[in-house]
Amino acid sequence: MSKRSKTVKITMDNKVLQVKRKLTILQAAECNGIYIPTLCAHEALTPFGGCRMCIVEVEGMRGFPTACTTPVEEGMVIRTHTAQVQNERREILQLILSEHTSSCLICGQKDECREYMGTIRKAGVITGCRYCPNDGQCELQDVVEYLGLKEIDYPIYYRQLRVEKEDPFYDRDYNLCILCGRCIRMCQEIRMADVLAFKQRGRQTVIGPAYNRTHWQAGCEFCGACVSVCPTGALSEKARKWEGKAEREEVTTCSLCGVGCQVRLLIKGEKVIGSLPAEDPLVNDGQLCVKGRFCVTELVNNHRRLRKPYRTQNGAELQISWEQAIELAAKKLSDCPAERFGLLVSPNCTNEDLYVAQKFARVVMGSVNIDTTARKFYGPGFNAYLNLMRMSVPLADLSKASLILCVGLDTRFGRSVVGVQLRKAIGRGAKVITINPRNNNLTMIAEKWLQPAPDEMVHLLRSLVKLTEKKGRRTMMSASRRKRGDLADELSQVAEMLGEACSPVILVGSEFLQRRESPQILEAIGKLARNTCAGVLPLPAQSNLYGSVLMGAYPELLPGGFSSTDKGRADDLSERWSADIPTFPSRRSAEALLWGRKLKVLYLIGVVPPNREPHSDFTIFQNIYPSGSPGQADLVLPAAAFTETDGTSINGEGRIQRVRKAVHPPGEALPDWEILCRIARKLGKKGFDFGNVRQIHKEISRFVAGFGNFAKPRRKASPLLIEGELRVVRRKSAGKKRADKKPPFMMNVSTVEHIYRGFPLTDWVEGARMLFAEETVDVSPEDAKKLGISTGDEVVVSWEHFQKSLLARIVSGQQRGMLYATLRNGEFIEPNPHPVIMRKKDV
Amino acid sequence: MIDREWGDIFSGFAGEQGDLIPILQRVQEKAGYITKGAIEAISQFLKISENQIFGVASFYSQFRFTEPGRNSIKVCMGTACHVRGGQILGDVLERELAISAGQTTEDKRFDLQRVACLGCCALAPVIQINDDIYSRMTVIRLKEVLEKYE
Question: Which among A67, A287, A726, B15 could disulfide-bond with A26, CB atoms 3.0 to 4.6 Å apart, if both were Cys?
Fold first, then answer.
């Protein structure tokens, strides 16, 4: 038999075409610029053949096959729009429309009416018929226009379904749904979240989760992928319902976590009206999480954004001009001795901002007191975490791994892009093991779920390290006597799986980072990776943690990640910057220098004032939102958000990625680097004459490898390469105090991690409040029953010197006697978990 | 951890996706209807989401999601019964019992189903309560028939 050629010859609409063998008729038509109307087909999804709009005539085939499901064959003769086909399509479309609110489609007055829809009233009033928020973007409208449908011959059947508004971020009006099934296929095939399904059949068919559950209850990740593919207005974003079409787009890097997804910002005028995933195969591959998809617009468009600089005097806010503000800052800074100055900067800033900030502290102030909030977030485990980043592998390695071990990882809301990769890996036959005291969406898909008590995590990992070191030797876990046999068995199985796996990957989440033993846990993960030749990928919560280290935004590190005690490097830097570089006193801790004492001037860039009183004589607060409690900042400077500034950022895998300016900052707000440069110039310092970000980037390229090409940064993942080390204070183990009685509850405390420039997203994004737990405590169903608590009740947890009222949430699959609290401000509670008493708050 | 109540339901199944419908049938046989707990247990056993299981089960009219009542009413919607007013009987029953087809009254006295054909078209319109057939049914007779059942 002769070898089959890769192409076939077909005739479509009297044109002879040579097309690839595996295409469908629809794809072949699209490749050759022939339009076939479709409603249910989508390039990313498997063919469905549901809407019947794409029917064509094929010679020799019975009836009208659908173009989206019929593959091309040699010699096929296809006609896509004969009079009969068009007639059939019109008939089918009428049937679809007989259940769809169709005034916007076939009304004779629709064009005249549209002109009068604008209103001079200040309220959001719409005149004329508007049943659907997708007007102008609806694919039904396109098809109706193409087929020239003018009226519907069938009686209109309005389904009278309730519009579902109870979930955050998007509304669902299934009266507009045409059951094309795109959202279901998206949820099942691409996201593999399996939240949506067709329910019932025939005329009763609706789309949704089991029973009448809300999407939130059904385990939805709120990635918005279903909303993006809906051809009608059935699924619509709450925040941009009536915004209309975007005028232009800009691809940038999302700054809401360390995954660094590429997003397409939709822009209308000077406003970002939406964010969609970019088709970027390196990181997110056309996927986003709830933060990137829905939180960006609400975050940057919030009406409380800072627009003008102001100073506070006797509790009053006085608006001042930029000149006055720069002058005031310069005056205060020139009076401030180097050791009593402090600069705290957010790890959400771009590399260029971070570089200028550390240069400002070192050159302008001659001070080493520069730090980021990551030090507080990671606490004693900071250095151990960076050590794992030195071993990191790209996310794409998940596609090669036969085993993926997740430690303390939750991928439901944040990092859901990684969750999709995990489910893809499972579909390919890879195994996932999750080590987590808590039940989350990974436990169901995982081959094994090791559920240690939070304080047993380190024992468990160390046992795994030992088991992978010497095969055959079993190590008993001392901490859990009850289930020792089972657990030891499980552990040796896991160790065996790790030993046999082909290029395994260990994903490191953030759920244990606030615990005292986090350095030990992180070190054990490192050892485990070395023992099993596994790749490690820590997934930091901060968008530019990597960059903050490489730019030298810490007292211990110089740009390029060199140790600041390295005399040669410091001298070299002094020469390049033509200024004396202060050296970090080798025996001091950065924490004591910056966080533990009162300073004369504290300069906060993208950081909220620390939770202590008073933190400084004079506080400069530079951010996108006001600081919350007035009086905490003496001078407030409005800054640009990541959608309003140019620069680069380095994600957790070590890819240098562009952050692009989509719109101008609101009011008079300026990018961080520009404000810093203006103050530096006012103080008469040299080396701050940057006119744009490109110049800063060029200067960075002298210190840091990989920098240089600003327009097209090197987007290659690379492990963190630094010579310096961060000095962290390891808290001594307090020694186990034996309580007289067994404490009723152990409370495990963690800090919120969905933070942008010091603020939890929940402050500015309404929908996020429902998804991200804050000031809550999770209780097991058994304990809740015993105390008569239900979800949403207020409870009081107390221990020796502390009392706090929190909202209870009942979580199934949680260990008895264990409480998990998520608190807004990251104070380390010692010890963690802490024995507490809990009671229901008296009404 | 699969609920102990449902553990034995899965005996003999390998845990493949294709086992879903036979398992659902076994659940309905045992419990009389598909309970929420059963769907949760099946979901864990087959690693299919509860949403998808519900989607599949609700497609087939053989599965019900509410507890059956003490007496079960079937209204015939076959061609002959339809012509002779079966639709009206169904509507009246729904109003009278304040439930819709497929549901059970709050006091668990009746459940109501619309069925395709009971096989006695000559007697149309027909309703069946438990094992009793009521032929040439009228709206007026409905009420007294219902009173026979507690």
Answer: A67
Architecture label for domain A310-380+544-700: 3-Layer(aba) Sandwich (3.40)
Cα dihedral A430/A433/A439/A444 (nearest 10):
30
Q: Going by C-beta distance under 8 Å and a sequence separation of 6 or more, which residues neighbour residue B9?
A: B23, B26, B27, B30, B38, B41
Instruction: Please give the CATH superfamily to which domain B71-147 belongs.
Output: Glutaredoxin (3.40.30.10)
Q: How far is CA A592 from the centre of its chain?
A: 32
Cβ <8 Å between B59 and A198: yes
Task: Name which of A375, A508, A374, A363 is nearest A435 in CA terms.
Answer: A508
Topology adopted by domain A170-301: Alpha-Beta Plaits (3.30.70)
Residue A414: both structure tokens together: 């944040």
Is B52's CB within 8 Å of A199's CB? no
ipTM more than 0.90?
no
- CB contacts of B49 in chain A (<8 Å) are 193-195, 219
Could you report the per-residue pLDDT of A265-317, keeping only the tens digit for each?
A: 999 999 999 999 998 888 998 999 999 999 999 999 999 999 999 998 887 88
DSSP A650: E
pTM of the predicted protein model: 0.89
Per-residue pLDDT of A706-716, as tens digits, reads 888 888 888 88
| Interface contact flag, A210 B54, Cβ < 8 Å | yes
Q: Where are the domains positioned within chain A?
A: 7-147, 170-301, 310-380+544-700, 398-538, 745-840
Conformational region of residue A13, where left means phi above 0, alpha means psi within -120 to 50, and beta covers everything else:
left
Per-residue model confidence (pLDDT) at position A482: 44
B58 and A200 within 8 Å at the Cβ level: the answer is yes
CA nearest to A605, candidates A645, A650, A636, A644? A636
The domain limits of chain B are 4-59, 71-147
Tokens of A585: 């006193």
Query: Smallest Cβ distance to A218: which of B36, B48, B51?
Result: B51
Give A87's contacts (C-beta < 8 A, 6+ positions apart). Answer: none
Task: State the pairing for strand pair A535-538/A505-508.
Answer: parallel
| Token pair for A594 | 């910056």
Q: Give which of A187, A211, A782 to mutate to test B binding, by max B Cβ within 10 Å.
A: A211
A177 CA to chain B: closest CA distance, Å?
17
CA distance to partner chain B, nearest, from residue A166 (Å) = 18
Q: Do A219 and B49 touch (CB under 8 A)?
A: yes
In words, the CATH class of domain A7-147 is alpha beta
- Integer Cα distance of A794 and A810 in angstroms: 12
For B66, which DSSP code?
Answer: S
The CATH class for the domain spanning A398-538 reads alpha beta
Assigned CATH for A745-840: 2.40.40.20
Please, what is the Cα angle at A691 between A690 and A696, to 5 degrees?
45
Question: Which chain B residues are closer than 8 Å to A219 by Cβ?
Answer: 49
